[in-house]
């Protein structure tokens, strides 16, 4: 018997996220997306698809070796899978456990994107200084004005 206030456990949430990730990967592999995957992207996605959660991370060097490409190509392909195909692939930069994986928890999403946020902040400060803007807030206002234009190109 279920109650009105039945709570989902952390395990339930993880299981649902894994299922959602798997469904998204399947859709992309079946041709859903803005364009077809390249053969290298398809092979990369097949290698990543079972890497659900941080404990399943695979190193960029292992991926590069298995696909016989350089690490830059792996990074570019992962970026394309995230941006164009909306797949939640993140990277852990831990020395021992580092690598790419599908985020399955909110914590994994946050930690997997923390370095990107730091990079955005550092770049914003750099742009602010070069453009001689009084504050990052002024830069953010300018970016907000440019955003609709930017979104049209994506």
What does this structure look like?
The protein is mainly α and 154 residues long. It folds into 2 domains: 95 residues, Orthogonal Bundle (Arc Repressor Mutant, subunit A); 41 residues. The chain contains 6 helices and 2 strands. Strands 1-2 form a two-stranded antiparallel ribbon. β1 and β2 form a beta hairpin. α5 packs across α6. The longest helix is centred in the last third of the chain and has 25 residues. The N and C termini lie far apart (48 Å).
Itemize the secondary structure elements and their pairings.
Elements: H1 10-29, H2 39-48, H3 60-67, H4 71-83, E1 89-92, E2 99-102, H5 106-130, H6 136-153
Antiparallel strand pairs: 1-2
Sequence of strands across the biggest β-sheet? 1-2
- Write down the Rg: 19 Å
Overall strand count: 2
Outline: globular
Q: What count of helical segments does DSSP give? A: 6
Secondary-structure element order, N to C: HHHHEEHH
Structural class: mainly alpha
CATH architecture of the largest domain: Orthogonal Bundle
What is the structure about, briefly put?
The protein has 154 residues and is mainly α.
